[in-house]
Amino acid sequence: MLGVQMAWQLKAAGLVWKPRLGDRFAIPDRDLDDELFVLSNMSIQVHERPEGRIIGFNGTVEWALDDVEIDETIWLPREDQLRELLGGTFRSLSQDATGCRVRIDLLGEIVDFPAATAEEAYAAALLHLLAAAGADQPATTGPPSGSP
Q1: Tens digits of per-residue pLDDT, 34-75?
Q2: Nearest CA to 72 among 35, 34, 28?
């Protein structure tokens, strides 16, 4: 899974999130840094019962966090979403003993992005594309001060 730090860099570089069911996100700075949230139209939980574990389909969940502004969240794109965002520039993903490597073709120049995971390699390539497209902020901008 893509880490919050890299997700911050993508957001700062100009990546815009258009939320869809199944998207993962984090909510930093609310004592929820270790929680992963998934957009869903259902709340489904595993419950421990004396007769064994069951999967419960819940209607609504009463919780102190009623809502949150979308700009207070950090989208954690999945591997397939990152690959889709690379569009026609994407050429290949390879893996070896040291990790993964994404190759893109940017205006005739082949560029490789090695990383420990596929998500990180895709994200590095996407940061490069955003920077090449002339995003308003540098692609290496991190989270605001006080954020994870």
Answers
A1: 788 888 877 777 888 898 888 877 665 555 556 778 888 999
A2: 28
Report the Cα 1 to chain-centroid distance in Å: 7
The β-bridge relationship of strands 43-49 and 52-58 is antiparallel
- State how far the alpha carbon of 56 is from the alpha carbons of 33, 41, 49, 60, 108, in Å: 25, 14, 11, 12, 52
Q: Distance between CA 104 and CA 84 in Å, rounded? A: 12
pTM: 0.77
Q: Supply angle C-alpha 108, 8, 79, rounded to 5.
A: 55
Q: Which residue has the tokens 């004396």?
A: 50
